[in-house]
Design a protein that fits this description.
alpha+beta; Chitinase A, domain 3; four-stranded antiparallel beta sheet; 15 helices; globular; PPIase_dom_sf; signal
Length: about 425
Amino acid sequence: MNNAFAPVLAALLALSTAFVPGPAAAQATTPIDSIAAVVDEDVILRSELDRAVANITAQYASQPGQLPPRDVLERQVLDRLVLARLQLARARESGIRVSDGELAQAIESVASRNRMTQDQLRARLVQDGLSYEEFRDSLRDELLLERLRQRYVQSRVQVSEAEIDQLLAVREIGGPEVRLANIIVALPDGATAEDIATAQKKARDIKSVVERGEIDFAAAAIRFSDAPNALEGGNIGWRALDAIPPAFVGLIQQLKPGEISEPVRGPGGYQLIQLVETREQGTQTMTEYNAQGILIRATPTVPSETARQKAQALRDRIVAGEDFAAIAREHSEDTMSRNDGGDMGWFPVNAWGTSVGAQLTQLRDGEISQPFQSEVGWHVIKRLGTREQDVTEQNRRNQAREIIAQRKAEEEFERFLRQMRAEAFVESRLTKD
């Protein structure tokens, strides 16, 4: 697969690392040679697994040594296919759907992010050996999986102000951020002393190989890690120190960028953590605007042109010397600001909508806009002033909320996936091929 097409694949692979065609697409394009796994009443074909593995190996065509042995890679990819198939079945059972219109918007977004027209996108897919139908099916599946996660998490994750206060009291929110990667050497349930010693030695050996320069950390993760992010080179991404489990913070703070921790025993096995790089967070400010506004709504009984003419007449009266606030109180149809003489208060640029925000940025203080249209009607606004507002504390609370919500969401969804996997009938037939 052409590496230049990686951004398009990245858009597809928000939830998985391999391009995973849906079952219908796979059956339409490849013969049924054998069954790789049985998943409840469904099956994953050997051809589907081969296609997914081929996409992984194609992405690493210039660095094939970074991939694990074929049998290990097949097992990793099959595990993901199984989990994806179970989630898709649950999403459809739950009534989650992606309309053709929503899918068309997603495809347009993929094309736009890659600076392509849809025709160019089609041509690139053909060039890389992917049919447009497979692309559509895979993208629809990704959207279904994301909506399943959102629906499940939103119904179960709540963050209280008390939880935010508690986190802020014990952690320094808004401090340095670190980018991390990890490698996990898994231990089986009920691991024996011999299992533990073997896993610890393997983790130490991996660390030694990387530190000697024989292989980089990302390649080692791909080859040796048992973690779900193995095929991403063990990448964890940027994390604030306050978003990291307290047991690991001290360990990470002792590392310099590029350094790797000693093996750390966790619930699932031994873990190596690499500090990739660090960055500081500074004081955060936001430009806020103060304005007055008048809204004339366009309705089925008030055509848009009639509303525009009324807005224009009101503006003319203000420019001629009448008081903006008095006219707003009498004529504005914005119930949020009318009683205050159209006073919109201090607000971020797009708080009242992007149409209002676009006008504000073009006006000078004291200047009155020409009538302009939004989705609700016609507006006239007067920009009164701007200020730079320190939002560091507000953002700290928002960060704390996101940290707690993310932790809860990950815990809840991981629990959901484990339960779903445990309740499913899954039979791998890789050893029977």
